[in-house]
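Me: I keep going back and forth on a fold encoding question. No explanation is needed for now; the record alone will do.

Assistant:
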Amino acid sequence: MKKICFVDFDMSVTGGVEQVTASLANELSSIYETFVYTINKGGESAYELDGRVVFIEGLTGEKRLRGMIQGTFRPFIRFVKENKIDVVILMGNYPALVASFTRFFTKARYIYCDHGGLMNQWKQKDITAIRFWDALTSHKVIVLTEKTRRDYISRFHLKPGKVRCIYNWIEDKVVHAKKRYDTESKKILSVGRFGKEKGYDMLVEVAKAVLPAHPDWQWHVFGTGETFEETAAKVSEYALGDQLILKGNVKDAYRLYLDYAFLVLPSYREGLPLVLLEAAAVGLPMVSFDIETGPNEIIEEGRNGFLIPPYDLAKMEKKIEELMADKDIRREMAEYDGMKDKFSKENILKEWIDVIEE
């Protein structure tokens, strides 16, 4: 039986990368001897791991990148050799950078997974340099969208066979959560970590333009993060607190989706947003900016949602009000079922097995 090891930065946090890491590890543990190695010792995994998955914690309290690289180097090489790991799967840019130097001292094959979009941060030279190094030193590069695959090949001059697009799958529990769409709901939903890239500053501006004219509607936002207080202050300044409600974190948010009329994603950039995958799975109409990568591989314009030109707040306001006004459009979007095969667990799991066996 092959041995595989996922490397994540900190499995104790609730994030998309950590959720994908746990899902992949759990499913593959029935086929391979599976390890999850977390670089930062933050505590137990925020996502439940199968009993067959071996969870390994790394450093405690190290915050400087150089210190992480130095502190991880020897212990990780020893870990890979002692456990005879065949394939190391690096989940994200920084875990890949920290562990990349060990690749030259083990016999394992290294797979680098970029959970973002290359061109989203192309002008941030430090991030681009990290991505280039991670791709150069790994045996295989996995990206989330076909657009990002083409970008890696053309921008970094990589051989096409080295870069592969594998989508994140839609979890079975999400698919099974689908129920009859509620056309009478008058609640809008947004879900995601509060970070600069998530566009909650734009969300508040759109809400300010839309909600006062529709006093019977509310907009609920789930999540926490570094911009939460800043966003809350703006909600208060605009006196939107009765309609735009910041709900904090919630576990398994997909269970709530069909209490809502539609979902809005206002991000500046994304990789392949799980929140849209979940919304598509349960039949919740979506509105999102048509940013560099992600939304346009999940939303089919006019069929299960609307794609808005990036950062065009007026257009987003118009489309939101269109959905608020027309329950028939919302119902038709909710009934669309064209994404099922594209993001099915069965198909995507086969792709991962192909890569590992290769």
The chain has a mean pLDDT of 94.
